[in-house]
Write a structure and sequence with these properties.
alpha/beta; Rossmann fold; 2 domains; seven-stranded mixed β-sheet
Length: about 290
């Protein structure tokens, strides 16, 4: 790993999600080629005209194609009815040539998101968003793990950052990121001692300063400051806020990078790994469905 390590101006190891994403994509492509180039298909459903969502989905299709997968996009207008969105998802569920389905969130406010997600079978739920996928994670059963928390674990593994017996603070308790992140950290193999902090946590600075690893997933711009971080701790930035059309993370990178032992950039850290793990899950979906 030493030849690949980049450091911040303050000396922290830079956890490079772009590099690891590209390595993951290349590994998936090699796996598909070795299997005889089966047509593994990732399908996305995008409703509306939200510009960031279109960028995210385009990037997912681009990387899927680089990995040797087939990608299919279903784009619906923001005025689509509940029935129209559900029909689009149901058609992909029924299509045996489709192995993974991603419904890009957020959906328009008039759409019942849970009703749409509930249509996804666990095998095709490559974003790990449904209650059945989360239940499988809780029970330790085979299924798809939400992509961003899985991407965080892949970064920790790549850079050999030990979690066993370590104190980890996850800031944020969403079902998409914070809660599955906690579950991944405490299950056998990771064996961390995890605390989930949130807006009602008393003395957030003191809680965070006990942590060997801080994972910030609250969506609150630059909330993690130098005061939150004990020297040498690993700091992983998951939260995203858009300010003046720029992506800003939950971590005040400039202030923290001289204190942390390792830190993710924003952008370029957990975001690319979310896409990498989506493709990883799609490959596993194809295995679960007997396509590879």
């Amino acid at each position: 790993m030493s030849a690949e390590v980049k450091r911040t101006p303050g000396g922290a190891i830079l956890l490079d999600g772009i590099m690891l994403r590209d390595q993951t994509v290349a590994k998936i492509k090699s796996t598909i080629v070795a299997a005889g180039n089966p047509k593994i298909c990732l399908a996305t459903v995008l409703v509306g005209d939200d510009a960031p969502s279109h960028i995210y989905v385009d990037n997912k299709h681009k990387k899927a194609q680089e990995a040797g997968m087939v990608s299919r996009g279903v784009n619906l207008p923001a005025t689509s009815s509940q029935a129209e969105v559900e029909q689009a998802v149901a058609e992909l569920v029924a299509d045996k040539s489709v192995h993974g389905i991603l419904v890009q969130l957020p959906l328009p406010k008039h759409i019942d998101t849970e009703a749409v997600l509930s249509l996804l079978p666990v095998e095709k739920d490559v974003d790990g968003l449904t209650e059945r996928s989360l239940g499988r994670l809780v029970r330790g059963l085979k299924g798809h793990v939400p992509c961003t928390p899985l991407g965080v674990m892949r970064l920790l593994e790549k850079y050999k950052i030990e979690t066993k017996g370590k104190r980890v603070v996850v800031i944020g308790r969403s079902a998409l990121t914070g809660l599955p992140q906690m579950l991944l950290l405490v299950r056998r193999g990771a064996d961390a001692t995890a605390t989930v902090a949130h807006k009602s946590t008393l003395d957030m600075v003191a809680v965070c300063r006990e942590a060997d690893i801080i994972i910030a997933a609250a969506g609150s711009a630059r909330m993690v400051t130098a005061a939150h971080v004990k020297p040498g701790a690993t700091v992983i930035d998951v939260g995203v806020t858009r300010i003046d059309n720029k992506i800003v993370g939950d971590v005040d990178f400039d202030a923290v990078q001289s204190i942390a032992g390792a830190i993710t950039p924003m952008p370029g850290g957990t975001g690319p790994m979310t896409i990498a793990c989506l493709l990883e899950n799609t490959l596993e979906a194809a295995r679960m469905l007997g396509a590879i």
